[in-house]
Prior knowledge:
The chain is mainly alpha-helical. The protein is built from 13 helices and two strands. Belongs to the PPR family. P subfamily.
Amino acid sequence: MSRRVLSAPDGAKVSRFNLMKLQGRQEAAAAGTESHHAHHAFDELLHRPTTSSIVDLNRALSDAARHSPAVAISLFRRMVMVARPKVPPNLITYSVVIDCCSRVGHLDLAFAALGRVIRSGWTAEAITFSPLLKALCDKKRTSEAMDIALRRMPVLGCTPNVFSYTILLKGLCKVDDAMAQFGRLISEGLTPDAVVFRTLIHGLCARDKWDKAEELAVEMIGRGICPNNIFFSTLLNHLCKKEWLQEPKTYLT
């Protein structure tokens, strides 16, 4: 079979593979240009004759973070060196930094930024902690994430929200002692409802931990929480993907 070719703008024939390579180079160049523009715009804010407000700097930092966490971290370092005496970073600034460091896997820097928040006496909201919780769970450091959510956050006057618990529940599915950690969540005050059970059971099924998923389903029913259509659809979907055609009958009878 002959290789399919496409016409380039200059009339030359290029293979699909070469076209993909060209597209990759263009995307890389665009990313580099975007990074350059972000640094240039940030420098203009830093060197204005009149001092830029922290709101302007935070907005620019957030815009950069949406496209490239690494660029945002670089801009923050520049901000600390140039603008800190006149415009010190605030809670929003460090929240952006925690998010960026967590997304690129620099958890040491994320913890350092969180430490700055704590030492400054700011009252952080749950959303500030969420990226760090997710990054820890992604690295199977769920116990550390739970310590932050269940112990450190309340001490700092911050109550974990539904999103915080969802991150922890999904993280539990990635560890071997999921049931023990789930019991710990309950003992720390989490009231499991249908959504909590469904989230955890879905995650366990996705990772072929069927015995633990069944154990949770039994506990859910024992607590008087009746499975609904969403629960059964999720369960049957996982079973059918595994071609365990006899298993759905067990749950439906």
